[in-house]
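Quick one:
INPUT:
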């Protein structure tokens, strides 16, 4: 993580000595003004290229401005979760007043380049994104990539949407490494399940923002003509199982007379679909959108409410405000309504926990 600078940054000192504004330095060095501001505030350690450009514009050495020339040591940097390799690309975001590093994953619909790379515990930053301009969401909505694209276009902020089951997403929110966790335990019969789950796992002081209502059910091969959910529950022997703690796993366990275990678990709705389409599983539980997009059969089991949970203290955060505005916009609600199995009738509604 970048060090907190309690005195005037050398870049600011040199800039002011020349009588330049941040805009003038940005123009002279060819980097965004927002990056100049973030560098001077200690929120951003520039890439080597950017550091050289700023030093050239101010007619001094990189060492005089940054010491290490744009690279920073990883001591004190915090990974949101442990990276799998010694060399890792990462994204950076501010959550709860702290900067966190997120190992790069393949995010559905994401076009975000990495913010830097970590080699031998040294972070080499390359991106222009301010950590405070990024919203981090964990959840299993297969349309999260669409949400991220709309969010960026409407707000100018960045949304990183990590695919996680509801239980895992709430745990990340509890740890304070994501801003928002998505869960979908509420049903027509039990509309308070999402709020109860948050209250049990996190306590009070949270908001639930309705993202959509959707259909969850059984996905089957395209040539399977089974028409009854109960027949599937009795006859299917090889299920594509979701991880314990996910709503899809709970749905399947409720369907089966004797809940089963599996050595191999699927971590997303899309993974369930691929298992069925690939032929190693006879059936699985997922949302309608994934099944229909893959050309597979779908038997609806229950209607669920997908809610986005975030701390009440973050409600006035500009990133969260941008998310609320987007979900309440007519254009977004119309788009959600057009997705197979999705219903935007209550999208944008807010509930306190």
């Amino acid at each position: 993580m970048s060090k907190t600078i309690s005195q005037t940054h050398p870049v600011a000192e040199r800039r002011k000595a020349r009588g330049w504004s941040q805009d003038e330095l940005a123009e002279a060095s060819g980097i965004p003004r927002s990056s100049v501001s973030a560098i001077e505030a200690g929120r951003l350690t520039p890439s080597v290229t950017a550091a050289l450009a700023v030093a050239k514009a101010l007619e001094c050495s990189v060492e005089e401005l940054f010491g290490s020339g744009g690279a920073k040591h990883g001591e004190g940097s915090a990974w949101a979760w442990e990276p799998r390799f010694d060399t890792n690309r990462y994204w950076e975001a501010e959550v709860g007043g702290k900067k966190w590093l997120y190992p790069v994953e393949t995010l559905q619909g994401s076009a975000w380049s990495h913010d830097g790379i970590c080699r031998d515990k040294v972070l080499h930053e390359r991106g222009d994104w301010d950590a405070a301009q990024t919203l981090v969401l964990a959840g299993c909505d297969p349309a999260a990539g669409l949400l991220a694209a709309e969010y960026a276009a409407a707000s100018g902020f960045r949304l990183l949407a990590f695919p996680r089951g509801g239980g895992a997403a709430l745990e990340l929110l509890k740890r304070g490494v994501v801003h928002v966790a998505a869960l979908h335990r509420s049903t027509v019969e039990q509309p308070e399940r999402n709020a109860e789950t948050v209250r049990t796992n996190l306590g009070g002081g949270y908001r639930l923002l309705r993202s959509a209502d959707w259909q969850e059910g059984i996905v089957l091969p395209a040539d399977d003509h089974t028409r009854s959910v109960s027949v599937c529950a009795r006859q299917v022997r090889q299920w594509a199982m979701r991880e314990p703690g996910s709503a899809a796993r709970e749905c399947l366990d409720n369907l089966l007379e004797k809940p089963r275990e599996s050595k191999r678990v699927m971590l997303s709705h899309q993974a369930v679909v691929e298992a069925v389409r690939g032929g190693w599983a006879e059936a699985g539980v997922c949302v309608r959108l994934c099944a229909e997009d893959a050309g597979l059969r779908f038997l609806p089991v229950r209607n669920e409410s997908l809610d986005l949970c975030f701390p009440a203290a973050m409600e006035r955060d500009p990133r969260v405000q941008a998310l609320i505005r987007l979900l309440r916009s007519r254009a977004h609600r119309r788009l959600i309504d057009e997705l197979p199995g999705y219903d935007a009738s209550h999208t944008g509604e807010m509930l306190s926990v």
